[in-house]
Amino acid sequence: MSNTISLRIPSSYHRAIQKLAKEEKVSMNQIIASAVGEKLSALQTEDYLGARASRASQRRFEAALAEVPGIEPEIHDKMPD
After folding, report:
1. Are 28 and 17 in contact (CB under 8 A)?
2. Which string of DSSP letters, residue by residue, matches 47-58?
3. What is the chain's percent helix, strand, coil content, to nearest 5?
4. Distance of alpha carbon 44 from its chain centroid, rounded?
5. φ/ψ of residue 73, rounded to 5
6. How far, in Å, CA of 9 to CA of 14, rounded?
7. Model confidence over 28-48: pLDDT tens digits?
8. Cα 60 from chain centroid?
9. Alpha-carbon distance 48 to 39, whole Å?
10. How far apart are CA 24 and CA 31, in angstroms?
11. What are the residue ranges spanned by the domains of the chain?
């Protein structure tokens, strides 16, 4: 289901969206819908990670680390010097 909204944006945004839509060969609506989706996703991810962090426990973190084998990481997994 899709809904229609009326939106006031600065002329500079309108021109930029229009230019991008033309370059990408898509509608302005697709550019705006995609931008809104990306912003919502970022905000929801931030909320999700914040909720997960609030449940964090130093004790459980250290217990999980204690179960990691004490072996050298493979070359592609090593931290740079």
Report:
1. yes
2. HHHHHHHHT--H
3. 65, 0, 35
4. 8
5. -70, 155
6. 7
7. 999 999 999 999 999 999 999
8. 27
9. 14
10. 9
11. 11-68
pTM of the model: 0.65
- The encoded tokens of residue 3 equal 């809904």
Radius of gyration of the chain (CA): 23
On whether the CB atoms of residues 21 and 28 are closer than 8 A, the answer is: yes
Which tokens in the block code for residue 17?
């969206």
DSSP 3-state of 70:
coil
pLDDT of 52 over the 90 cut = yes
Structure tokens at 61: 């973190």
Which tokens sit at 25?
């060969």
CA 35 to chain CA centroid, Å, is 12
User: Both ends of the chain: CA-CA distance in Å?
Assistant: 52
